[in-house]
């Protein structure tokens, strides 16, 4: 049964999800400021590292809960959630200043010529498949994560388990695919 408190938090979760989605979409539409802070070029590397760390922590969290170490499970998930929030802040900051990098743009001129396309070949399609599934699932996983946290912290264990069956593999895929996307696109950064 959903309580009044649950309804409030569920509404808040949908509002947060909508705001994050609007901000990320707006990043595509808003022109980049002319001057960039010097730290901006460190962000993709930090973002890739955060994704890798989150993937490892998610697996550790699963191990803790399988061993019935609920406290360690909670702490690990809180750390993972906080790192994911830092990831989101860094992602927004980076994409405010740096717009899309083109996969295969070897000479970093923003234009893919025939030679560049030939050089990357089919890996370009693999990259886009991973990127597109990463983006779609990243949008889907945010409310799943937030609802699973709500259920877990309010000790609604059965309801928590039901949502985590979906949230965990999606969150893990988003974290791992984020690392793969970073590794595949990083040679083409123009900095």
Automatic annotation (TrEMBL):
The chain crosses the membrane at residues 12-30, 42-65, 77-97, 126-150, 170-189. Keywords: Membrane, Transmembrane, Transmembrane helix. InterPro entries: DUF420, EF_Hand_1_Ca_BS. PROSITE patterns: EF_HAND_1. The keyword Transmembrane applies. This is YozB. It comes from Pedobacter antarcticus 4BY.
């Amino acid at each position: 049964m959903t309580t009044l408190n649950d309804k409030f938090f569920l509404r808040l979760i949908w509002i947060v999800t909508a705001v994050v989605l609007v901000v990320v979409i707006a990043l595509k539409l808003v022109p980049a400021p002319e001057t960039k802070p010097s730290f901006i070029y460190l962000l993709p590397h930090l973002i890739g590292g955060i994704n890798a760390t989150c993937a490892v922590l998610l697996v550790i969290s699963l191990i803790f809960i399988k061993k019935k170490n609920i406290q360690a499970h909670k702490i690990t998930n809180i750390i993972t959630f906080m790192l994911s929030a830092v990831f989101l802040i860094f992602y927004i900051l980076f994409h405010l200043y740096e717009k899309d990098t083109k996969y295969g743009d070897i000479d970093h001129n923003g234009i893919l010529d025939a030679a560049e396309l030939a050089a990357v070949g089919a890996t370009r399609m693999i990259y886009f498949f991973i990127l597109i599934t990463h983006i779609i699932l990243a949008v889907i996983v945010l409310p799943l994560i937030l609802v699973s946290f709500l259920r877990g912290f309010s000790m609604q264990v059965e309801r928590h388990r039901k949502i985590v069956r979906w949230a965990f593999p999606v969150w893990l895929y988003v974290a791992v695919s984020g690392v793969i996307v970073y590794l595949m696109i990083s040679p083409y950064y123009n900095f």
